[in-house]
Specification:
Helix content is 35%, strand content 25%. The protein is an alpha/beta fold and 445 residues long. The N and C termini lie far apart (58 Å). The structure holds L-homoserine.
């Protein structure tokens, strides 16, 4: 039987040209230019139209650039550039002027591809609403975990399932730092200095080390996974600056490794989103994520456990994610329509950190005398926190000349953050407790 003609097919007979504007030409932008240039023929075949780079907006048009960048495309007039593009790619970062430029692009009917996690985590809804009103695409695969496809899988592949929990190592710098502390016994400052020397960490490493970068990504992932609105302000954030070499060594002795995790959980009451260093059992797949790599572990009701792994930063890996989005939105331009949009229909309450339920490991320095363990255990019992194990390592003298102290390492069963905090405060008040050395959550067990 003869096939019916495909009357609905809208691919033009002659390839058209789509105008691409690039905002920013740093490490990622340069690699975007390289891919657009070196793979032009393949991209045209995949899109069904030629992608023409019509301009690159930069702060300093005189600055030295990689030879792949055609200097005649450089402009300082970003506003003018976005008005003449079909697709605007933003790799500048930060809130302004990125937000105004993207809103302007959307108003002019351009599809937008952005890697800007800070902007999406702070003011995503404004951009989503503008894109909806204009009927254009807003894609941002590169905003979370660089090259790793995670936005699209969560937004599209898992949209028929019910995601319960997302656990992510979404900051390569801190993963590198913690990995070096674990493998080389470095202290935090030495490991951060090494990360800076290798170009992973910025001169001011605050955004990475204090967990702001991971918190932005956690907010974006939580919003997508749970079809609700989560902003960076909803994320309970703790970085790795308080993690000591001793904590890392102790993690290993108890069969764990310390990772900075971005965690988004859904319960009957709402969602809870947090970023903090956590003890991860060595048997968990996230424990094997080494160096500056990223990974996102997703638990969904029907799919079960999934893990997405790869390079979370760097020019070429991030550009790969950007180009994937460029091809997608360009295809929509050619074929008509737009891709899946953000959905926040669930409108779930965001729960405070105190509601989070996890297991804990608490390390104490105590006076070494009979009855101390009983006093500590009594405080845990009073607060309803159940003990899973207690260890008292040999080699008591932690300080020269002090020989009547011991270390206690208490692992708990699941407890709320509120109960644990109250417990630790009460333990600190015991005369026999010299100091609380660390309180770490155990995740992924
Ligand atoms: N600074 C981030 C990291 C990459 O270390 O993973 C950009 O989000």
């Amino acid at each position: 039987m003869a096939q019916q003609p495909r009357s609905d097919r809208t691919i033009p007979l002659e390839p058209t040209t789509l105008r691409v504007a690039l905002l920013g030409c740093g490490v990622v932008g340069t690699e975007v230019v390289r891919l657009l240039t070196t793979q032009a023929a393949d991209l045209a075949a995949r899109v069904g139209a030629r992608l023409e780079l019509v301009g690159i907006a930069v702060r300093d048009v005189e600055a030295e650039r990689d030879p792949v960048v055609d200097r005649s495309l450089l402009t300082s007039d970003a506003e003018g550039l976005v008005e003449k593009a079909d697709v605007v790619v933003e790799v500048v970062g930060g809130i302004e002027p990125a937000r105004s430029l993207l809103l302007r692009a959307i108003e002019h009917g351009a599809a937008v591809v952005t890697a800007n996690k800070a902007l999406l985590a702070q003011d995503g809804p404004t951009l989503y609403a503008a894109a909806d009103a204009a009927g254009v695409d807003l894609y941002f695969e590169a905003a979370v975990a660089g090259a790793i496809p995670i936005v699209r899988p969560v937004r599209e592949s898992l949209v028929g399932d019910r995601v319960q929990r997302v656990l992510g190592i979404v900051n390569g710098t801190t993963n590198y730092v913690l990995d070096r502390m674990a493998t080389e016994g470095l202290d935090l400052d030495a490991a951060v200095a090494e990360a800076q020397a290798l170009g992973y960490a910025e001169a001011d490493p605050t955004a990475d080390v204090e967990g702001f970068d991971a918190a932005a990504k956690a907010a974006i992932l939580a919003s997508l996974a749970f079809h609700t609105r989560v902003s960076i302000d909803d994320v309970d954030r703790q970085g790795i600056s308080s993690v000591t070499a001793d904590d890392v060594a102790w993690a290993a002795r108890t069969g764990h490794t310390i990772k900075l995790l971005a965690i988004a959980e859904r319960s009957d009451e709402g969602v809870q989103v947090r970023v903090h260093p956590a003890l991860v059992p060595l048997t968990h797949p996230l424990a094997g994520v080494r160096g500056a790599f990223n990974a996102v572990f997703v638990e969904a009701e029907a799919a079960g456990e999934l893990m997405f792994y790869g390079r979370g930063a760097g020019g070429a890996p991030t550009a790969s994610a950007v180009l994937g989005d460029v091809v997608s939105v360009a295809r929509h331009r050619v074929l008509g329509g737009r891709g899946p949009v953000e959905s926040a229909y669930a409108a779930l309450p965001v729960l405070p950190a105190s509601a989070a339920r996890t297991r804990y490991q608490v390390r104490l320095e105590v006076t070494d005398q009979p009855g101390v363990l009983a006093q500590v255990a009594a405080v845990l019992a009073e607060h309803g926190v159940s003990i899973e194990a207690v260890r008292q390592p040999p080699g008591r003298a932690l300080e020269p000349g002090v020989d009547d102290v011991a270390q206690l390492v208490i692992s708990t069963h699941t407890a709320t953050e509120a109960a644990l905090r109250a417990t630790v405060a009460a333990i600190e008040g015991l005369d026999v407790v010299r100091r609380v050395l660390s309180v770490l959550r155990v995740e992924g067990a």
